[in-house]
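Dear support,

Our group has been running a series of protein-ligand predictions, and this particular one with NDP is the one our PI (initials K.S.) wants archived with full inputs and outputs. We had some confusion internally about which version of the output was final, so please treat the block below as the authoritative record. The input we submitted was:
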Amino acid sequence: MSGPRWDTHLEQPHGLQLPGGRGGQRVHRRLRPAPEPQLAGGVADGAGPVADGAVGVPGARVHVGRLGCRTTHSNGEVVQSCILVFLATKPHVLPGVLQEIAPLVTPNHVLVSLVAGVTLQTLEQMLPPGTKVLRFMPNLPCVVQAGAVVFARGRCAGEREAAVLQGLLAACGLCEEVPESYIDIHTGLSGSGVAYVYMFAEALAEGAVKMGMSGPLASRIAAQTLLGAAKMMLETGEHPAKLRADVCTPGGTTIHALHELEKGGLRAAVMNAVEAGTIRARELGKN
Ligand SMILES: NC(=O)C1=CN([C@@H]2O[C@H](COP(=O)(O)OP(=O)(O)OC[C@H]3O[C@@H](n4cnc5c(N)ncnc54)[C@H](OP(=O)(O)O)[C@@H]3O)[C@@H](O)[C@H]2O)C=CC1
Ligand SMILES: O=C(O)[C@@H]1CCC=N1
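Confirmed final output from the archive:
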């Protein structure tokens, strides 16, 4: 079938299609203020496509509408009008969507999935032979352009497709190409990991409330504490154990507090959480 060419897309980045769920909007929101303003007109939604801006998911219409994108309920229309198509449904919905769009996918298309657990091999098997497929995993802070994203490419996606995807996702924050096996680990570490950090932040603030501080102030200070700690890790390149030791005055407050965390099993609990998230991502891909 004829349709927009990938080369044309690179020159005129219209027809970028994105799903409108929370995962997809993670990417939308990040693209909106991104330094590549030419992309804003081409973002579309999962259920809806985007050709020069079209979106199809009801819940996302208001948000995506602000980007000047069109919306649609037809996945087929998305594929027929877009070269670069993002898949961002729940894992159990994806097989039906792939079955629906497969007859419309051409060698010009590039399909990009952020669906947890679903492997490149599975995607390739459900699409026509030779389809260019890539996979990535974002996390919630993509919304504020401080995300952590990893991606991997399928057998038929080359340097060019990888470079375009990386160029788009770099607007979300850190973005690295990795072996595909790392994507499920990244899901346990970072895609889900932000939720562990929020739980920790909540507990920090609640501890301060218990000791008499107001809740809103405690929350703001907890958030700034996490932000500062993370910034120091990134900017100094130091191992967190070294930074932690730097805070501990012999016989002081920190070592007494850390002893409580060790007794509570924080370290093992967090390691177990990353392991559980990773294993669950692998399971989702098999269902
Ligand atoms: N939440 C997160 O932080 C992250 C999520 N992910 C992955 O993103 C994916 C989606 O998760 P999330 O965004 O949280 O879920 P949501 O439920 O928020 O979004 C799913 C989207 O898929 C749409 N949809 C449902 N059925 C179809 C269909 N047949 N055709 C096209 N679109 C359809 C839904 O539209 P409607 O609302 O109209 O039904 C909705 O917009 C999952 O695979 C998850 O693993 C990846 C990284 C992070
Ligand atoms: O919980 C989930 O399954 C998705 C994947 C990573 C974040 N949310």
